[in-house]
Structures are given as structure tokens and as C-alpha cells.
Amino acid sequence: MCGIAGYLGAFDEELLHKMSARIAHRGPDGQGTWVDNNAGFAHRRLSIIDLSKSAAQPMKSVNERYIVTFNGEIYNFKALAIDLVAKGYKFNNNSDTAILGPLYDAYGPEMLNKLSGIFAFSIFDTQTGKAFIARDHMGIKPLYYTYTEKGFVFASELKALLEVPQLNRNIDFEALFSYVTYLWCPGEPTLLKSVRKLLPGHYLVVDKNNPRNSTSQKWYNKPLPKLDIRSGKPQYKHSLTSDKLRHLLYDVVGEQMMSDVPLGSFLSGGVDSSAIVASMRKHTQQPIKTFCVEFKGNTMASEGFSEDITYAKMVAQRYKTHLTPVSVDSSCLQGLSEVVYTLDEPQADPAPLYVQAISKRAKEQGIKVLMSGTGGDDVFTGYRRHQAIATIAQLSFIPLSLRKIALGISESVIANKNLKRRIQKLRYLIDSDLESSLIKGFHYTQPTTLFNLLTDDLKHIFKHRGEDLLEKQVRQNRIHAPLNRALALEWEGFLPDHNLNYTDKMGMREGIEIRVPFLDPKVLNFAAHLPMNQKMQGHTTKYILKKAFEGKLPQDVLYRSKAGFGAPIREWITGDAESFVKDTLFSAKAVNRGLFSAAAVNKLFDDTKANKVDGAYTILSLLVIELWMQQFIDIK
């Protein structure tokens, strides 16, 4: 796991060193550069596989024809090495990086379909002057790029591109709307109009002599059930059982435990991380170090969450892990500015704070790799929006007007504010067709609320905005079940652009590699072909996963209510952190940006504090956008 950067074009070598310095946290174990006419590559190394100097990068390969700059891990590199040796290639077969040059030489872009791993890399061909730049199937490893009049520049993190003198820092206002609506931005755009993300499962071929004439290709297609030739309906595999899933996870976790350094695991006490820990125990009798967040100074129940630590202790006791509680409270918001800088994007979610806190504690205990349950919710269903979509589909025979009346009555008689909030969200979801409901499930800020917060200039842009990636994606796969269509949106947007972005960067900030077994292609393929009732039965989400670990995990863990990496964010921003929030949002500089109406934002804050509206995450999104502006726009 590392950090990479590079350019193709008429840039100064000094740029390479500056970009490398920006991402030094990603590689505390070493650094290197390679420069030639109109091409340069930089690498920051976090040593996980083959700790020797022979695995240093940028790495020359195949008689020095290729220059490889790689971030990630290739779990099946030893099997691939056997094939390459049989073909006559010579290389360091203890290094996963070392197989990439020969593999590309032998198979070209088709090499990507042979890789099992997490990666973003560049392979520069010194004979053709072209760079092959690829990102893994789910976007687990990040990659940003930009074009200027001098050429093409890429890096693991957007902040490195700030070192490009010619970088245009104009704001992409449509991306801004996405960051407020979803708390993240789907697809290629970033908040800088000139910078793009390489999409998951895609690659670029860039010619140093004509960088702008680059081509982007999709190499990975997300798995979906095959369609019956006669009926055109999806065909599910009823032979897929919970036992098969459990043994598949055992195998995948075992494969991903490959490491020459100590590893541990997140353990939230939810079914996903608990299943990972149970699977790890199948491959080692050594003590497993696990980590869980616990909250101080507040009541999680007030926000509709349960305390993770209670359930984590159950799993830790069963599998004899060394569990370290990591305490957090509202004071962690004071470090929000640093978090925003680390993420490169204004993601309004407290979860990155916890990933960093756990990664920091793991580092203190000598851990360099953490296993994570990330992706379990997105692969097998786990979010409340999945339950809502399933409910909407089941009740579609009832006229919309009657459904709205029933929910309105329910909302009026329920006193519990958390349940009332969920009913309000369900009313919002059902007040439209299915495709709109699928998109609305991701909304943290409703379009009307966002519109009212904007200044007049941005209101005009908002009215004429185009479709984002999710809005385009939702029209595809209409033949498939609503729940599978919802999961497809998770895979295309929420996972790579939100969840995986903060998982990678907050871990790498502390020099920790985070692995995600639920996103292994074999697991994805298994899940994609499951009948719907194996993913969700009634309102039981992740049904087959829970069945797979019955008898292996406590019932209280398997069937606890969905918790997530939540936080009492409403209590924080209108309580202990109120002064910090207001000082940031209503500073002269923030108001003068001309993005949001100070009067409208102030009203939203007051109404949220008075419990008249639920605007906490909208306020948080505005807060992190301003913190992002201060660091990515104001500082040159």
C-alpha cells in the first residue's frame, strides 16, 4: 500500500518531488522517482509484501522497458508468477509489484482481468512513450488526474495536484450540489472542475507526446444475474447456500491475510466485521488485535444508534481477540479541518474520524494492516434505504394517496423522534415513482432544501444542472428487481465515492492498509446471483450472511438493529461544537464566497436546534465545504 504520482508532458522534475511530499503519509517506509524526457513518476512506499529494497519503486521491469508505479496489493501474485515464469519472464517473485510489468507485456490490458487485489497503478512503456494507468474493480484505491496546457498529471490524492502551477481551481458547481445532496459526489467529478477521478474498473492510456489524446476504457462490469433467453427475466442461482458463503468468506479472508507485517481488524460488533474476525480465526491461532469505537459524553440512543462496544466485547470474548476500545466525543469535530484535507473531498460524515482514530491506535500497537467489514451492507443489503425500497415495492399495489395518508397518521401519533424521522424519510421516498425513490434513498438534503440555501447566482445554475452518475445509472438494469437496482447504485456511487474514499485515506494517513474482503470479485459474483429472499427476508437484511454465521456468532450480534458508523451528530453541532460551527459558517470569508445564503443557513441552524427540522447533516455538509475551500482554494 503506497502513494503514487506522475506526469506526461513538459513539466519540471521539481513538480514530481512536490507531489511526492504531499502524499508522504501514504509511504513512510521509502520513496523514489523516475524521470525521463516528458515523463516522470514518484512513489511513496508502505512496505507490506517483500520488505526488501528489491521491491522499491518506481520499478524497472522486463529488461527496463517498463516503469511500474503501483499502489495496492495483488493477492494472487504468486499464482500469476508461476504462469509468467513458465513464459520465460524473470523477476523478483517475492514482490507483487514485480509481476505487473511482465503481466502487461504478456497480456496487455487483459492483464486486469487476471488480478485479484486492490490497486491503482501506472505502467509506462519506454519504447512507445505511453502510460497504462488503471484502477481496481470497485475503486478501493483512489486515483485523480488533470490535464493542463503542459500535459497530463495524476496522483493517489487530489491534494498532490495542487502542486501543478497551471491547475485551474474553478469550482464545479454541479459537484457542489452533489456534496450537499448526498454528502459525497458520484462519478468522475470533484469540487475542482479541472480534476477528475478515474472511475472504478477503468483504465487510461496516455501518450507523453500527445497527452490530451488519451482514451479511457471500462475493463470491469459489475456482475448481475443472467437473463432468461425466453422470458427476459433474471435467473438466480438457488444452489447458493449459506454454508457455501461462509466457506467462501473463509477462503477470501485467508487470501487477504497475506502479509509480511502484523495485521488486525476493525470490530464494531456488527455482523460484517464480526464475520471477518470469525473468518480470520480459521487461519491463525495467534492473538488477533481488534479495535472498536466507543462514545464518551453522550447517549447514542438519542440518535437512534446502539453502542457498538457492547456487541464487540461479545465477539472478542468468543474468538479470544485483544479488543481495544477507542474513545471519541464531540471534541473530535475540532479536527474536522484536517480530516477534510486528508479526504481531498468535502464528505460530511463522522465515520472518517473513527477510521482515523482506530488506525492511529492500531499503528501505536505495531499494526500495519487492518481487515474491515466495509462493503457487507452494499453487497448483501444492510441499509435502511434497502428496507424502504423493499417496502415500497411490496406495497406498490396500494394507491399512493392511501400510503401517504397512512404514513401521515403514523407520524402524527408517534412520539419517538428517531422513529418519526424515519417515517418522514419514508414519506419522502414514496412520494414519487420507483426510480426517483431509488435516488431519494441517497438524499441527505432534499433538492428544495438545497435550493433555498443557495445564493441567487447558484440557484440559476441549479435549475439548469445536468444529471449526475446516479441519475443516469438508475435508468439502467430496469429488468432487475428493485433491491438489486438499489445495490447497483451503491456499487457505482456510495461505495467508491464515499465509503471507500474515506476508508483508504484515513487509514493511509496513519500508515495503515485497510483490506475489504466483502468486495472481492468472488464474493461480489456470489451475491449478485442470489435470489432476493436470500438477501432480505421480511425486514431482515443480509439474511444469507446471518444464516451463514449462525452458531459462529452470538444471536444478539447477528440480529441487532443496524448501527453503522454513526454518531450523535445532531447533538454535537448544536451543543458542544456550536461555536466552532457558527464561527466557520458565518465568517466573512465564507459569506463572501457567494455560495450559500447566510440568512437561510442561519434559519436552518436555528430550526434544527429547536427540533423543528432535521438539518444536522445538511449543516455538516456546508461546514466541511467551507473547510475544504479554506484549504484547497484559499491557500495557493
What does this structure look like?
The protein is 42% helix and 17% strand. It has 28 helices and 21 strands. The protein has a 6-stranded antiparallel sheet with strand order 2-3-1-9-8-10. Helix 5 packs antiparallel against helix 28, helix 9 (336-343) packs across helix 28 (616-632) and helix 13 runs antiparallel to helix 14. The longest helix is centred in the last third of the chain and has 28 residues, at 482-509. The chain is globular and about 70 Å long. The two termini are 29 Å apart.
Overall body shape: globular
What is the makeup of the main sheet?
A: 6 strands, antiparallel
SS field, number of helical segments: 28
Provide the gyration radius in Å.
Answer: 24 Å
Strand order of the largest sheet: 2-3-1-9-8-10
Overall pLDDT: 91
Report the β-strand fraction as a percent range. Answer: 15-25%
Uncertain residue segments: none
How many angstroms separate the termini? 29 Å
**Fraction in helix:** 40-55%
Structural class: alpha+beta
Summarize the structure.
Helices cover 42% and strands 17% of the residues. It has 636 residues and is an alpha+beta fold.
Describe how the helices and strands are arranged:
Blueprint: E1 2-9, H1 13-22, E2 30-36, E3 39-45, E4 59-61, E5 66-74, H2 77-86, H3 100-107, E6 117-125, E7 130-135, E8 144-148, E9 151-155, H4 158-161, H5 173-182, E10 195-197, E11 202-207, E12 210-218, E13 226-227, E14 234-235, H6 242-256, E15 263-266, H7 271-281, E16 289-295, H8 308-318, E17 322-328, H9 336-343, H10 351-364, E18 369-371, H11 376-380, H12 384-394, H13 400-413, H14 417-430, H15 434-440, H16 447-453, H17 456-463, H18 469-473, H19 482-509, E19 513-515, H20 521-528, H21 532-535, E20 536-537, E21 540-541, H22 543-548, H23 555-558, H24 569-573, H25 578-585, H26 588-592, H27 598-609, H28 616-632
Helix pairs in contact: 5-28, 6-7, 9-28, 10-19, 12-19, 13-14
